[in-house]
Amino acid sequence: MSNAEAAFMQDKMKWLKFLPTCRSILCLDGSLPYGLLKKIHWPIIAADGAANKLVRNGIEPRMILGDMDSVDPNLLTKREHLKILDQDTTDFEKALDFIKGESLTPTMVTGIDGGYMDHIWNNVNILARTRSAFFSRDIVGMMMDDFYQSDDIPLNTKISLFGMPYGVVNSKGLKWELDGMELSIGGKTSFGNRTRCSKIELRVLSGKVMVCISTKDIRDAGFLWRQGSLD
Asked: Which of 130, 162, 199, 211 has a CA 20 to 30 Å removed from the CA of 176?
């Protein structure tokens, strides 16, 4: 690993402290953070075809499960796996049931952004039933229905909140504070908000929300306007 790659991974690792403490990682068949997965020593559960990507990148899942229509059969000969042929549930749902049964919750879900738009939306819908954390490309986040506090989040971090499907939220420490704001699918969202100090608090008064925290320093127009420059 080059110095640049090592610095990148170290930077990514620091963002995990803003998530709930997890007991496992669930990998779906989307974009996976291989470097991160090699550094975290939580049990890795692979949903079907995600196992192909993991093994190719030198990562061994503790369990492979699903309907096995995507995984390379050769991978299964030497690895623990569970074939579940229930067509009323997705591989994501099958994996979540297994993780719950093994007392490995809460879990961090990654690879949620793979596939077509309808696939992604279905993954988000399933995720909304849980209190899981997630790591997706340049976003970390969680489903929450209670209270969240962070004492050292970087200033001007981009943060977005969405009702799942509905939530009422109070906030402290955001550029555009939420004072009993109702967030919902098809209604209002708090998209592209910013942290204005290092300590933030979010309180869900009712319902559930998805919190998305950007791990990149996004210099969009709103950020540059705040700095007094559009150059």
From this structure: 130
* pLDDT above 70 coverage of the chain, percent: 88
* Domain 3-137 -> CATH class: alpha beta
pLDDT digits (tens, 9 = 90+) for 208-223: 999 999 888 776 654 4
Q: Where in the chain is the domain with CATH 3.40.50.10240?
A: 3-137
pTM of the model: 0.86
What pLDDT does residue 224 have?
Answer: 41
DSSP string of the chain? --HHHHHHHHHHHHGGGGS---SEEEE-SS---HHHHHH--S-EEEETTHHHHHHHTT---SEEEE--SSS-HHHHTTS-EEE---TTS-HHHHHHHHHHHTT--SEEEE-TT-S-HHHHHHHHHHHTTS--EEEETTEEEEEESSEEEESSPPTT-EEEEEEEEEEEEEEESBSS--EEEEEETTS--EEEEEBSSS-EEEEEEEEEEEEEEE-S----HHHHHHHT---
